[in-house]
């Protein structure tokens, strides 16, 4: 235990630096994923044929081992070693949890509510904005949480393709047989995941419409 | 006024029409109930009126104007629409739910708020208490009320109601029906009302349209349909108790007779002379406070006197029918049930605390046998 602390104190600046890189990679990946996959999820919720294709692709990508995906990207000329490959891989992995959850979230909205809204003269844009999207928030958010936690873990593996993040502590620790180093990396990665999950949990409470939180009292 | 001309709907991928060659006219201010077994096309017809479904051929006109000439969303904004599952927005308050269509019409905030309160009150809901609630906090009956209020928000002249009271228990349903009938008497909206329940159709409809397999079988007033069912299908659909159902079209005071013959307890020894004098088939016993507490028929009296019965025996006889009193707004089928329950051919009709009229089994029989058009 004291060895671990000692290691951390002695290497504080590099650990901090790695943590920062780790954070920024996840952050960029998640932002890009949100901007990309939420619209895709909405789009496929309105076109069943497209949904089948897109969800198939998302599932296939999700089945590729992350190390293999990183390795493949490194061989692509414009990507190479480092951030671009890592970012692309994370965004692609996020496709499955995010797109599926957005799609499901919209699909499970009570069709009677949609029918009533349509019958009152709301157009499809209004129905999406005022009904489907807000009601899909809880399911969508579950997808975002999974994505963030998952990305935190996969980002560590990007150390193999030159990302200087907490994963590096683990990979180097392994080769040097340095237990303190491995533990520091592992603990911090886990802490980041927990941190994100907690923050997002708080966000979720704010974003879920009030009417959905109320359980029937009578 | 809603008119359907030779309307046919064939769903994609099907060969059998869901609705075939339907021509039907619903007058302004009329409630027309579409009734029939499930799959008979009644909801399809309703949904063709607000273009939720487009007909394959034929024309649908509202006030003489083809519905296809109006933008579907504009059209729907001007027609009240209630479905069985109501479909309240679960993430919006009651006030926001009711305010949807007014908002689509571009009403200002204050005007919407005022209208919401007005409608809640009309629906028998306390605005203070209800407007900020979410649908999950409402009972089934309250949800249905909010659903109807929402459909009436901009006071549309035409309303389409697809089993609007279908999802609540029979007691609440009956109350909602009564309330809606009371409102409709004032509003006189043109209403298409879908149900699979013939009793609801009889109760709610100015006219009833009976469908089977996409075809209109009979369209007429409840009385026409009950007294002259067009064929075996209609007869079967109405049920074996067709004549009793006809009684539901009348209230007791429609046929009860005024000036019931009354006797006080201390006059009992004089009962024979009094009945003869008034030529009454039945006499009602009244206690000292003036409250009716039983009845004796002329037949009973004759039989008992022949057996040498005294005042006490007559009083006992009268008291054995102490429940044979009903209100004038009761429906005749319920009155008949009372007659059977108290094993009597006569019922006293109360007006508040006093006895006002008398209803006899003979009157009910006459009413049930009355032919269409007779008064």
**Helix-strand makeup class of chain A:** mainly alpha
CATH architecture of the largest domain in chain B: 3-Layer(aba) Sandwich
CATH topology of chain A: MetI-like fold
Largest sheet of chain B: 6 strands, mixed
Order of helices and strands of chain A: HHHHHHHHHH
Quaternary organization? heterodimer
Summarize this structure as a short list of keywords or feature phrases.
heterodimer; A: 218 residues; mainly alpha; MetI-like fold; 10 helices; B: 375 residues; alpha/beta; Rossmann fold; CBS-domain; 2 domains; six-stranded mixed β-sheet; 18 helices; 24% strand
Describe this protein's structure:
The complex is a heterodimer of chains A (218) and B (375). Chain A has 218 residues and is mostly helical. Chain A has a single domain, classed as MetI-like (MetI-like fold, Orthogonal Bundle). Chain A contains 10 helices and no strands. In chain A, helix 2 crosses helix 5. Chain A is elongated. The relative contact order of chain A is 0.14. The mean pLDDT of chain A is 90. Chain B is of the alpha/beta class. Chain B has 2 domains: 246 residues, P-loop containing nucleotide triphosphate hydrolases (Rossmann fold), CATH 3.40.50; 118 residues, CBS-domain. Chain B is 39% helix and 24% strand. Chain B is built from 18 helices and 17 strands. In chain B, the strands form 4 sheets. Chain B has a 6-stranded mixed beta sheet, with helices on both faces. A 4-stranded antiparallel beta sheet of chain B has the order 2-1-4-5, with helices on one face. In chain B, helix 5 crosses helix 7. Chain B is elongated and about 85 Å long. The two termini of chain B are 28 Å apart. At the A-B interface, helix 6, helix 7 and helix 10 of A face helix 2, helix 4 and helix 7 of B.
